[in-house]
Hints:
heterodimer, A: 148 residues, mainly beta, CATH 2.40.50.180, 2 helices, globular, B: 675 residues, alpha+beta, Four Helix Bundle (Hemerythrin (Met), subunit A), Alpha-Beta Plaits, 5 domains, five-stranded mixed sheet, 21 helices
Amino acid sequence: MKEQMSSIISFFINKEVFAFDTLKVRNILEFDKVTWVPNTKEYLLGVINLHGNIIPIADLRMMMGVENIENAQDTAVIVVSDDDKNESLIGLVVDGVKEVFDVEGDEIKESVINGNTGLVHSFTGSIHRNDEFIHIIELGELVQEIEK
Amino acid sequence: MIDKFKAKFVEESNDNVHDLEEALLLLEKDTGNMEIIERIFRAMHSLKGGGAMFGFNQLSEFTHHLETVFDLVRTNKLVINDGIISMTFESIDHIKHMLEVGDVDDASELATQAEFIKRVQHYSNTDSEASQPAANEPVAVVKDDGSKTYLIGVKPNEDILRNGTNPFYLIDDLHAMGQARVVAFADKVPVLASFSPITSYCNWQVVLNTSESVNDIKDVFIFVEDECEITIDELGKGNLLEVPAISTMIDESSNSQTALVKAELIKAGAIASEKKETKKKVQLKEHKISSIRVNSTKIDELVNLVSELVTIQAQLNLFAENDGNPAVLSLAENIQKLSRQLRDNAFSISLIPLQSELMRFQRLVRDLSKELDKDIDFVIEGGDIELDKNIIEHLTDPLLHIIRNSVDHGIEMPDERVKNGKSPKGTILFKAYYSGASVIVEVTDDGKGIDPEFIKKKAIAKGLIDANVELSRKEIFDLVFLSGFSTKEQVTDVSGRGVGMDVVKKKIGEIRGEVSLDSEIGKGTTLTLELPMTLSIIDGLLVKVFKNQYVIPIANIEKIFAMDGVSFGKTFNHVVNIEDQQYPFIDLRETFETEAPNKGTEQLILVKYEDRKVGLLVDQVIGEFQTVVKPMGRFLKKQENVSGASIMGDGTIAMVIDTNRLIHNNAIKKYRTKN
């Protein structure tokens, strides 16, 4: 698949492991109070103030169709930008951030996803490591879904 | 290093080209104006010199030939005609192109260039004898003393005397402004038997030499504008009344009762002043640096920093108040004063006059109307109005679209205009003025107008509205801005490139502006844009709705009322009765779909919406705040009810409500069919 990918950041959603390309990630925050914005989609929880910028927050768990959403100590916000512009920054809520690690290009295999992933349809690929599948989410598609 | 200089040269040259274009448009209207010709010559000269210095040799060579033509004009060896002007316009485009690409080796490019130069040379090679003015004629020299001479026509309506207006006083006022000679035309006075003492029969022409401006002259007639036909034309610089030829013309006109002709007077005046031009000595003016060129990103940065400062300062104020230490409090107050001044200053730096952008439109109208064989005058009023540079940048596309529409669909062909009793020359009036905290821009054409019934039918056909809804005139014109609505069946080359008025509305909406349309069949169409003066800081009223805080721009607020639940018990159809007036209102808790609408204490904020007032129902008014509006980013653009968010002193976020959009969306909901 993509040879150039070198580092990914993995996280939990409903006990499954997913990941983003590290280059797209700007910040990782604790999930805290969010200012709710009226008349928006349900999974858009609102906005937060990040160093003086207004950042929208989307609940990735809700987008992926997780039914029993619980906010716990580990619940985190991963702030990403798909085109490196400030206006495209968005925070995604996940059940917990796992780790950052390097991958070889040929380690990434085509994704085979069983079960429902809700509004998230597109994956760059999957990695099999330590008896665990890590699915890398294609950010561009995800962002377009939110923008719709 | 050299690249940096080159970039600077290109930047400066673009200014020169811009200046050239502007001067040329002026020259087209006033071909004899030596000052404009000088200006053109100077701009060309700088382009030539700079081009050679920075390695734009082809540019330099080309401009040299162009300059030769204007040198001939300057020295009266060549007379400006349409051919030269059109050639120069094309040359300007060519210069722009050359600035972009620099020197080229491409053969075809070189060939076109050589071809172009030949065309330019054609003008400088023409036998100059024929067009040379008769310079041997002994003429008096007119001194340029800073004054100008005007031809003023005063033609009162017949019933002007009924209002007690004495036209003689107007003439007296003109006399008081300088030296004037009046020609009275009394040829319409009837025989005594049919003479009515309360009817005015006369009209006058005044040749006035004054150092006052045209506007001052206009002011004389300010109270009789509607009762008189006033024309004011500039004849030339200096006191032309001293020119014998003009004196004779005035005498003749008085004797024979034939009107003075502007063109003839200008000609007589120009001959007299030409001599002066050649005698003019070269003067070196003191050179003072009154402005500096700053990269616009630096200004953006400055404005951003100042915005940050204002936010931090609000936090400091909050802290000082809680702390209660008088020393800290006074410090905080001083910082507030300073940051306010700094803010105003920083914002004034980023303001630029509209004029700078309008040049392009003038050129556009000229080119388009030539292409479509229409005759259109583009008149600008209020070009000196200043707007935030970011707003002006966002304005270009919508204005382009609006003006294209006016040229293409609005203004009719000349013969059609004559048939409808209009002057064959159409007019597009661009007017800008301040209104409260906003700037209003109106683009008016005197074309064929739009039929509201046609719009309605079309909207019904397209399924945008129900066939049986009752719409006000304004609501009908608003339909034009709905997406999926484009009145022109066929897409033409000029307008209608697949984008409709909904794009205009969207673009204007992005800078928190509003757009509306009004039209009268046969008379023309007006598009009105209401724009904020700056984008980033507003005075707002902080209110609370459910758990959230919102900011409503103070500029839109009319009044605030405290309401009790009881008076709402009687409301019907979202109309409330306050002080014997009925106002429609929007319950923000309902609109924002908050979980549990609280019906305890509430306050109604009356906001202006176009020509109406609409109430917004909120839980609580907190107070007045000055806030920096931050964009919500690309994911919340669809959310139209809020235009941005601001960060409060304690770090929490309050959303800024776009009241116009909110009310508009709620009103639309009422008559727009589902799906």
